Amino acid sequence: MKNKGSRSLLVIGLTSAVVVAGLGAYTRMAPPHRPPSMEVEETAIKPSEPVKTPEPQVEVHSDHASPAERTVALYLPKFDKSDSLSFERTTSKVPAGEDLRLFAVNQFMKETKIADPQARLLSVSVKDGLATLSFNSAITSGFGSDDERTFVEGIRMILGQFKEIEKLEFYADGVKLDSLGHFEIDNVTVKR
Length: 192
Fold this sequence. Notes:
Elements: H1 2-29, E1 71-79, E2 85-93, H2 100-112, E3 121-127, E4 130-135, H3 145-159, E5 167-172, E6 175-177, E7 179-180, E8 183-184, E9 188-189
Parallel strand pairs: 4-5
Antiparallel strand pairs: 1-2, 3-4, 5-6, 5-9, 7-8
C-alpha cells in the first residue's frame, strides 16, 4: 500500500509542476492586460472635422498686399558715354495668375528688343536651385555680338531676385544651349 500512495503523490506532484510551468509560460507569452484606465486611446480624424492643409508659401515681389497688384523688378540695359554696360532697375506689374519669373523674363525681352521679336520664354522650372529656362527656337537668332552678353546679364539679374534660383540652364525647343552665338551660357549663376 505504501507503494501505491507514493505513486499517487508522485503523479499529483508532477501534475502540479506541469500546471505551474504551463501557467508561467502562459503569463510570459500572453499580451499584457491593462486596466481600462491605462488603455491607450487611439485618435482618428472624425469625418465631421475639416482637414487643415498648410497654405502654400508664395513669394510676392511687391509692396502691395493684393496678389492682383504684384510687381517684379526688371533690369534694363543702359550704356554710358564710354560704352560701359550697366542696368537700370524698374518694376513692372504682373497680371493676376501669371508666373512671376516667366513674366519678368518675357517682359525684359519685350522692353529691350534684344532678342528676336518672336522669342518667348515658354516655361521655368526650378529644382534644387537650378532654373531650367525653356525658350522657343527664336531665341537662337537675332542677336548681335554684344547683345548676347547683355541678354544673359539681364536674365541673371532678373532671376536673381527669386531666392529659390541659384543657377540657370537655357533650352530652345527642348535642346540644351551651351552658347548664344559667341557667348557661352554653360554654368550660369544668378546675380544678386
